[in-house]
Amino acid sequence: MEEKKKKRSSAKTLQTAREAGYFGKKMLARTRSAVEAGQPVGWAMVEWWLGATIAKAMGVEMVFPENYGAFCAASRTAEANLDYSESDGFPSTLCGYARNCLGYTRRLKENGFVIPADATGGGMPKPDFLLACGAACDARYKWFQALGRYLDVPVWLLEFPQTGSREYFLPGNKEENIRFMVGELRSFVSFLESLLGRKMDWDALAERLDILFKTHALAHAVDRLRLAVPSPAMSTDFWALMIPHLYLPDDPETLAFYGRVYDEVKYKVDHNIGAVPNERYRMMFAELPPWHTLGFFDEVAERHGVAFAFESWNYHVPPPLPAGEKEGIGDPLELIARYSYHKFHHGADAGVKYGVDPIIFTAPYLEYVQDYRIDGLMCHPLVSCRPATYTLMHLRNVLLEKFKVPSVVVEGDIVDMRVFNEEEAHAKMDAFIETMDYHRELRRKEGLNW
Amino acid sequence: MAVLAGLDVGSLLAKAVILDEAEGILAHSVRLVAGNFQTAARDVLNAALDNCGLTAGTVASLGTTGLGAGFVNGPSLRNTEISCQARGVHYLLPRAGSVIEIGDQSTRVIRLTGQGKVADCVISDKCAMGSGRVLQVIARVLRITLEEMGGLSQEATRPVSFSTGCSVFVETEVISRIAEGAGVADIVGGLHRAMAVKIGGMADKARLEGDIAAAGGGACDPGLVKMLEKVIGQKVLVVDRPLLTGAVGAALMAAESRGRG
Lengths: 450, 261
Ligand code: SF4
Known about the structure:
Chain A has helices at about 1-5, 15-20, 20-35, 50-55, 65-75, 80-85, 95-110, 140-145, 165-170, 175-195, 200-225, 235-245, 250-270, 295-305, 325, 330-345, 350-355, 365-370, 390-405, 420-445; strands at about 40-45, 60-65, 130-135, 155-160, 280-285, 305-310, 375-380, 405-410. Chain A is an alpha/beta fold.
C-alpha cells in the first residue's frame, strides 16, 4: 500500500517530456537571481500570452503561481499551503492554485519575505507587481486582490473579452474587441513604464514575439503529429511539454527544445511507434489534470491499452494565425491582441456548426474528437474550479449525441489530492472499457468512420 | 459436476453464489463482513457450497468483486462491480434495459447493452446521501430496523422535506424534526424522497432506457423503490434476490474469461 502511494508521478513516454520540468525550475531560479541582482520580478496568471511577454521585454522576470501550484501538487507538497490558506479563512472550495498561492504567500510574509528554506522548487520570490487576467474564470478576478492581505504591491488586471459562437460572427464585433484589447495592452505598457521608470523596448518585444510564434508553430505541429494512430505521445507527455510553451514561449532555449520535441514525435510517427504498446483505445481528457496523481494515466494505459491521445484545450497553443490576419500589422500589441483573441475563438466555426456555447472548453473538443479518432472522453470535474467544470456535462452530452462518443466522469482536483479517489477512478475506468466497445459498434452502424 | 462460483465482498455484507450454467443458481449465502473481509469471504463461500452439498474442488472458476475482493484467498478472477452488476442483472432479469443498484457505499445507475454489458454508467458522489448507508444511519437515529422503513415510508402523509442533500446534516435535521414532533413515518418518507431525487438525477444523466431494474440492499426497501418510481415516473422492477446480482455477475464474468482463455 505504501509502495503504491509513492508512485504517483507519470513515467512519461517521450524523452523530451521527461526533460521539460527543467523549464519550470529555470523560471523559478531566474526570478530569484533577478531579485538578488536588484531586477524587477512579477507574478502573472496564465493570461494567454498577453502581458508576461510584454513585461519580459521590459526586463521583468516573470513567474506563474498557477504553474507553481501544479509543481507543488506534482511533488505532493501542496497540502501544507492549502491548509495554511484554509486556516486563514479561505474556503476549501476556492481554486486549488489560488489556495496554494495564498498559503505560500502567507508563509513568505511571515518569514519576512525571505523564501522559506523548504519551499518547493526553491520558491517564488516576493514580486514587485501582480499581473492578473479575467480570462475564463471568476477566481482569477479576486485571487490576486486577495493577496493584498499579505503583499503590498500593485495588481494589474488584463481584461479579456470573450464572445459567444454566433456573436463572434456579428459584423464589426471582432474588430471592436481587438481595439479594446489593444487599448488594454497600451494601458498596461504605460503602467509598467511608470512602475519601472523606463520606456518600453519595442525591438525587444518584436524579437520575443518572433520567437514565441516560432515556438508555438512547432508546438502546434506536434499536436498535429499526434493525429497518428498509434498515438506517438500521451497526455502525460503533453502536460510536461506545455510548461515551456505556456510559460516561456519567447525564450530561445524553448524554441530549440521544441525543435527536439518535434523531431522525437516525428520519428515515432514515421516509425509507427505508439506511446502505448498495443494501443486499443484512444481517449481524450477534459480539462485540468490531477497533478498529484498523473501516474494514474500510466496505469490505465498499462491495464487497458488506453492512449490518452489528446487533452486540455486550455493549455494548447491555437492553430497559427491565418496569414491574412498577420499581414500588414506593424503594431506588436495588435499582433498579440489578434493572436490571443484567436486562441479563445478558433473554435467559433465548430460552435456554430454544432450549435454549442461557450466556445472555450467546449467547441474545440468537437473537432478534436473526430480528428484524433477518440473512443471516449474522461471528464475531470474539479471541486474547486467552476470554469473547467461547468462545461463538462454539456460536452459529455454533445459528444454522445453527435458522435456516439461516451464519457467517464472522475471527480477530483488539480491540487487537492484529498478529493481524488484513485480506487474508484480505476473502477470506473475498468467498466468504461465495455462502454467504449459498445459505442464503437454504434459509431460503425451510424457510418461514423472511427 | 463443475460449477461456477461468485463472491461479492462488500463493505457491509459478503455474498456468495454457486451457479450451474444449465440449471441456474444452485445455492447462495449472505453474511456480515464484520470488519474482516478475508474471513467473511472464506466463510460465505464455504456456506454456499455447503448449502448445495458441494466442495471447493467442484468449482471450475471463482469470480470476485466488491470492496473486499482483494482479500479473497486462492485463484480467482476479480472484476469491477459495475460490470458484475450489469451481467448479474441481465442474467436474473433479461428484459431489464437499465439498473439502479443501491449499495452500502454508493449507488450505481447503469444502462445495459443487449448482452448485459455497460453502455453507460453514473456512480453517486462520495456523499452517503445517495447510498444505502444513510438508511442505516437514520434507522439508528429513529430506533427502527431497516426492514421497518419500507412500510413506514408508505404510511407517510406529510413527508418531511429535508433542506440539505448531505447525510451528515440530514442526521442533525432528523433529530430537530423529531424534537419538533414530526412522525417517524413522515421522516422516513421524506428521507426516501430525498434519496430518490438524488438517484433520479443520476438516472437522468445516464439516460436510462427500457425496463428499469433495482438491485442491491436498497432494492429490499419497498418504500424507497416506490419513491423512486414516483420520481422517475416509471415502474421499477426489483430483481429476484437483489443482494446477489454482483456475485452472480462475478461468477459469469469469470466463466466468460475462462472461455476466452
Ligand atoms: S480556471 Fe479554475 S484552475 Fe484556473 S484559476 Fe480559475 S478556478 Fe483556478
